[in-house]
Amino acid sequence: EKGGYEHFMLKEIHEQPKAYRDTMRGRMNAEGNKVILPELNLTEEQIKNIRNIQIVACGTAYNAGLVGRNLIESLVRIPVENDIASEYRYRAPIVTPETLVIVVSQSGETADTLAALREGQANGAHVLAITNVVGSSIAREANSVLVTLAGPEIAVASTKAYTSQLIAFTLLGLYLAEVRSTQSEPEVAKILAAMQSLPEQVEVILAQKDVLKAYAEQIAVHKHLFFIGRGVDYAVAQEGSLKLKEISYIHSEAYAAGELKHGTLALIEEGVPVIALATQESVLEKTVSNIKEVKARGAHVLAVTHEEHKDDLLRSVDQVFVIPQTLPLLTAALSVVSLQLLAYYASLALGHDVDKPRNLAKSVTVE
Ligand code: F6R
Known about the structure:
Layout: H1 8-14, H2 16-24, H3 44-48, E1 52-57, H4 59-76, E2 80-84, H5 85-88, E3 99-105, H6 111-122, E4 126-131, H7 137-141, E5 144-147, H8 160-179, H9 185-206, H10 209-219, E6 224-229, H11 232-248, E7 251-256, E8 273-277, H12 284-296, E9 300-306, H13 307-314, E10 319-323, H14 332-349
Parallel strand pairs: 1-2, 1-3, 3-4, 4-5, 6-7, 6-8, 8-9, 9-10
The structure holds fructose -6-phosphate.
GO molecular function, one term: glutamine-fructose-6-phosphate transaminase (isomerizing) activity
Catalytic activity: D-fructose 6-phosphate + L-glutamine = D-glucosamine 6-phosphate + L-glutamate
Keywords: Aminotransferase, Cytoplasm, Glutamine amidotransferase, Repeat, Transferase
């Protein structure tokens, strides 16, 4: 049932190209310049009236929402907030009938996320669920459901569900952009074309897993490490950090690269590994100066970036992992795969139960 893989997690990491294709299938027109989402029970008028969006979820699904915010704000220019589901209700969120609440849940059964859905509906908002389980409680109660077609996810650490959520957010962002005319047809076509290359680009990363395994074995001897990045790279850093903690039990923190010098830099000592996500051209120079700050304190830095920035980065870091070139908006769907593999191999090197990490359950139905 593990299809020849040692663990479900590794199998599921390898199923991502298929999950991307399945989640995209049938959701764009033949010309490749329009997204079609008939499952959204929102009229054009309702979409045009959306004033704000709240994305609510837990754990990895929350982290997917961070990327979702970046996508939607860039594509549609509607203000988006991210909320942890267990916090949402208690902060008395400002929800109106012009708010779109998006709940994200692989299982569709997470108690706090379900409660957030009900909170949104009680305030008159349309609640759109992004979920992997069609018959789940969240899918049944939501006003609209955008299904991710990742297939069953068995490993406790979520991988293909997260990346399929990124695909779903991209499709949703493009659809909202069409209705609200915030992106031109050629722009949409360009993004859709780039999305269709993602599955084979993931394969390119998977083919380099030995490089990540070797790096994982290097970091497995450390007690603490850091992930840094800016913008969407920061969102991915948060997911990479969660994945690593969850299954390898190595303590790590994700920091917005520019925030380090406001305190955390004190924790960087000789040899501490820092994984720097540096895929965003527009802030690359800034990220590089943050990398130099940690290098100056003795950190051992691995940068994840594109080929075109490799040589540049090699001047300031110890190692570079190259991911295939895509649009800045879509890099998360590639860079995160390298961090999933890193977490997997670190857990393996430490001899932990990769698929069933201690103290965690696949579906959390208590608040
Ligand atoms: C981490 C992980 C958890 C879940 C979280 C939400 O790898 O799997 O953080 O993402 O418990 O679960 P769902 O998405 O089922 O609501």
